[in-house]
Amino acid sequence: MSESKYTPGPWTAEAKDLGGEVPSWRVYNMPEGQQVASVHRWNGEGDEANAHLIAAAPDLLEACKEALVRLECHNHPDGRRLDNLRAAIAKAEGQE
User: What pTM value is reported for the model?
Assistant: First the structure.
């Protein structure tokens, strides 16, 4: 699998007060502080959870890759689950 390029982690999510009732969430790479994503909807429901999920994306991708290598090395009998893991990695890398 070729690795796609994305802003390097770690990423962190922070609420930004834009003067409304609902804060807007921003995701930054650290320590550079470059914004990699913003999350905001009119009602704000789920924004914080979505921002934290986005911030965890680089860590989740690396954990999936490590798990796949370990499972493949042990000839895991449940091939369908490995296919799901491979598909998730491919989707994260823009190869779906």
Answer: 0.76
pLDDT single digits (tens) 74-94: 766 666 678 888 999 998 888
Question: Would you give the DSSP letter of residue 51?
Answer: H
Q: Give, rounded to a whole angstrom, the gap between the first and last alpha carbons of the chain.
A: 12
Say yes or no: 72 and 96 in one domain.
yes
For 64, the domain range is 57-96
Residues 9 and 45 in one domain: yes
Structure tokens at 92: 């994260």
Residue 48 contacts residue 25 (beta carbons within 8 Å): yes
The rounded Cα 64 to chain-centroid distance in angstroms is: 11
Residues 46 and 62 occupy one common structural domain: no
